[in-house]
Amino acid sequence: MNLPGKLPRSSLGSLVLIATIMGGGAAAFAYTAGWLSPGRLTPERMIEALTPPGGPPLGYRRNHAKGICFTGTFEANGNGVELSRARVFARGQYAALGRFNLGTPNPNAVDATVRVRGLGLQITANGEVWRMAMINPPFFAVSTPQAFHDLLIASGKKDPDAMKAFIQANPEFGHFAAWAKTAPWTGSYAEEPYHGLNSFIFTDAKGGDHAVRWSLLPAARPVPISQADLEKRGPDYLEPEIAERVRTTGPLRWTMVTTVADPGDPTADPSKAWPETRRKVEVGTLIVQRIEPERDGPCRDINFDPTVLPEGIRVSDDPFPAARSSVYRKSYDLRAAEAKNYPRTGAAKP
Amino acid sequence: MTDVPHRFTLAQRLLHWLMAVCILAMLFIGAGMVSTVAPKYLPLILIHKTLGVTLLALVLIRLALRLYYGAPSLPDDLPRAMKLGARSSHLLLYGFMIIMPLLGLGMLWAASYPVVLYGGVEIPALLPQSDRGHTLLWNAHVYLGFAFFALVLLHLAAGLFHALVRRDGVFATISLVRVRDRTTAGERSLGPRRD
Predict the structure, then answer these.
(1) Which residues cross the membrane (chain B) (predicted)?
(2) Among A113, A119, B83, B85, which one is most buried in terms of CB atoms within 10 A?
């Protein structure tokens, strides 16, 4: 029986219980935050691996740091409607905003030293925003975000065995190395194709799902140039070249082609290209109308997070879009916090 | 209200426990999602945003109920310092519940991210893109998140202290099930004794 006013159990036991619950809660929180798992691949670790030896260029994107903005339109031809109900595929013209860039964390890199060129793009269609980040190789260098992290670490080491060990562990990198060696260089952002590489799921009006990848194929004819000749044109050749090209020859065009996977095609691995015979649907044309400055241009503050998708497009089992979203977010947080270190205006250009 | 209630109303108690579970989930999801690059990052961030906006709506309802129905008074024999701690921690908890979702929304707006919740519900941006604004709101969201978790732990400890050590009826005012403590035992002793 319990007498009123009397504690039936020792309160010491209760205090120990309370302390245990508090400690357990704090430990669970620390574990969730990753503080107890040094092996976890966090956005911070990925950015650390991207950082050049001399430290990050403050205020810049942590990768694809060198680039230039553009504005234009996306002209949908209406063919995409059979694959996705996203408004952007309904026949019409939609605002496009983007950025040509080089796949390097160094904003002062010499153009001819950077193999991978990229295109960040945002299309806004009746309030729906679609962002994407594409590059010019037809497949990605590695199969997983962890392998990409390992590649950054291995390629940053002076020890030549580090890369050998990496390739042994990630044989898919061989295809990319072969592409990097043999694919022709061009002297213009305008002559490059840009590939989405990651597979996404398009959902049509009837609710049918289609696994797709997309590419932007240039209307400009690629003129191959040797790396050495490109180098002779100067360290910062590509940006004035594209500005001059738009000024003198007018808008530049790329056809957006979506490739539809057959059942069984690998959707989770962007290092594996799908066979050339897969069904292709041309869904529209990107028209680049104006080259805009990077520093005060409209793309400077846009995070080209490839998971900002309209209704009718969603991520697939490809692990990269989530990883890119997570790392890009961290990169944006960092560069926004470092804004005072970034030469904001064209006038301040050294 | 002239009468001081013995317990919070059922609606208040249900809302308290529902929000308790959701807020704990929010804090853990928040800490977990920013420390991973795994595919679960995307569903976690979607849940975090959706639940955050839902919790903002719930706390406003809760505040209205609190202002209308009031709260049971604290036991007379509770030391002054503990009373002060109880009142200020509750004010702080309400403050966190209101400001955390607003900071979260603000930091997304200031980064020009479209805020799309579960089911495609979009929240229109009320702030323009701003590096300085984003950084301020982002830091506030993160650091106040840690402070919120610490305060939630403290609140939990205080609740358990009332329930297990002091047994002064304070925990019974918010609990969903009947709790045996000094007050309720005393009340019960007014009825027929079973011993």
Answers:
(1) 14-38, 50-70, 91-111, 142-165
(2) A119
pLDDT by position in tens, chain B (length 195): 445 678 999 999 999 999 999 999 999 999 999 999 999 999 999 999 999 999 999 999 999 999 999 999 999 999 999 999 999 999 999 999 999 999 999 999 999 999 999 999 999 999 999 999 999 999 999 999 999 999 999 999 999 999 999 999 999 999 998 776 665 544 443 333 333
CB contact under 8 A, B131 and A301: yes
* CATH code that applies to domain B10-188: 1.20.950
How many whole angstroms separate alpha carbon A266 and alpha carbon B33?
27
User: Which run of H or of E encompasses A227?
Assistant: helix A227-232
- Give the mutation candidate from B131, B151, B166 for the A interface (greatest A CB count, under 10 A): B131
CATH class of A9-341: mainly beta
Across the interface, do A22 and B164 touch by the CB < 8 Å criterion? no
- Treating both helix axes as pointing N-terminal to C-terminal, what angle do A145-156 and A160-169 enclose, rounded to 10 degrees? 160
Partner residue opposite B28 with nearest CB, options A1, A29, A317: A29
b/e sequence B146-171, b meaning 16+ C-beta within 10 Å: eebbebbbebbbbbbbbbbbbbbbbb
Q: What is this structure's pTM?
A: 0.92
ipTM of the complex: 0.92
User: Is A76 within 8 Å of A94 (Cβ atoms)?
Assistant: yes
Q: Is A328 within any annotated ligand binding site?
A: yes
Residue of chain A minimizing CA distance to B135 = A337
Picking from B32, B42, B153, the nearest residue to A307 by CB comes out as: B42
**Residue A149 is a catalytic residue:** no
